[in-house]
Design goal:
Residues 1-74 form the DAHP synthase ferredoxin-like domain. The chain has 373 residues and is of the alpha/beta class. The chain contains eleven helices and 14 strands.
Amino acid sequence: MIIILDPNITEISEEYRTTLDHLSQMPGITMRVHKVQGAQQTLTEIYLIGDTKTLSAEDLHALPGVERVIRVSEEYRILGRHQDQQRTNGFEYNGIRFAQDTLNIFAGLCAVDTPEHVEQMLAALRDHGQTCTRMGAYKPRTNPYSFQGHGKDCLPYVFDLAGKYGIKVIAMEITHEDHLAEIHESLEQAGRPTGVMVQIGTRNTQNFELLKAVGRQQEFPVLFKRGFGITLNESLNAAEYLASEGNSRVVFCLRGVKTNMGDPHRNLVDFSQVPVIKRLTRMPVCVDPSHSVGSREHAPDGILDLMHAAAQGVVAGANMVLVDFHPEPAKALVDGPQALLLSELGWFLDDLALARECYEKRLALSRRRHGQH
């Protein structure tokens, strides 16, 4: 069960202490408290874990400071929607709002290679009014002899340049919990010129010890990529590991699933599941067309397959797009063949703006159909 306290109740309130004391004494029930940052206020959600079938929702609602009681019927206890449309979704980080009604573009380098390329990328983003990017420092690879990323050595200049060009959030994959400390230390030494959204890559989707470690930290929000060879339900349960440890600031990323049924694309594009995730959970949904399509091929219309896929995700309501760009794709150390050119950045952003406009018109049409305002 989930107990939501009145927004005016704080940890120093008498009602807060009285209610938590009462709940902590319930036999066979484990209690976890989560703070959920909404657009205008912070809510306290208390999760009761155990045999809650015999608990009376009416009795719990009568406790001091309780606003609502929700009986959980889905697997995703914290991230799930549970047929309650009033619950807050999304979060704000470093001045950027991430929710199921926003859209943020994270264009950047799949893997950092040189300071010059980082600066060229960030300058182009600034010139196009963008404040988010992706920058890979730690790169897990299928081949042990492939480039594994510069790691912590590149963090100082990446963070300095991000501050120089006004980048507020960098999506950055990690592969070990030690990377959290390295990122934190480098940010501190640089004077915190930017923010980082740590990324759990598809290969680590079921690395449960890493998920627990990332979930325990509250400093960085998390971009969680779907596992390329497991079901959507398994991936959503894996994302719940993050929230169960305390960090519910999670964005779920669709990046295609591995099957030859998707050929000639790199993966079978799964962006039709954007609305499914939004229905089942409160997480914002990201799409990664670069790793789904994996090439720069295009149809006779001249539009890249990658751009078609990205637009399909946005038309379906995606809240974030993660996409590879590179100043010189031929020199990229990772995934150069799928990277877009800096000269194509304006085209890509304009195309996504059209897709977003289409989604908003579809949303307005739906609301008229259902009598909403």
